[in-house]
Amino acid sequence: MRCLYEGLLRGTKASGALTEGMRGVQEIRQFSHPSHWAGFTLIGCDVRLSNKSAMLGNALGDLLTTPSKCREALRVLLHLIEKSLQRINRGQANPMYTTQQSIVNKVGPVRGWQELLKSVGFRFEEEAGSSIPPSVFFPISDPGDQLLKASSSLQALLGLQSNTLSAICKMLPAPEAAQEVIAMVK
């Protein structure tokens, strides 16, 4: 299921994502028997997720599941997004990239950073035999103002006091508690 949803979030059509998931299970020796993977069936349209805002929201939710480490990750991601916006506004169309390891070293053990960058147009490449290590290429355009929206969201989160951000992080896994707090505030 994880492979299926990762494929969907990458923009793969549902049938392709399902196939990737099934192949992933087949490659694991103890699950290679068809009884473990053959029962999955695609019912409905062979769609591709295209709602970048939902992808951004899910990625932010993942980032916030690590309250003690998310602030630094948010800063790093904001820096990358702002750098992209600067390059786009200056008309710089030459490719720019950084290594994935460089980002990992800065964001630490926080989940969701890759999905956030993918949702706003960053491209991840991991070519075996390439002269460059696994890299993240900066977008050269901002269709739909996704970079701008992400920048605003990250700035808003970073503008919160630490205890407020921590409280939001704790409420994410319990949406019913968040609804109760909202009702009390109203």
Automatic annotation (TrEMBL):
Its recorded name reads: Putative tetratricopeptide repeat protein 28
Q: Which organism is it from?
A: Stichopus japonicus (Sea cucumber)
The upper taxonomy is:
Eukaryota, Metazoa, Echinodermata, Eleutherozoa, Echinozoa
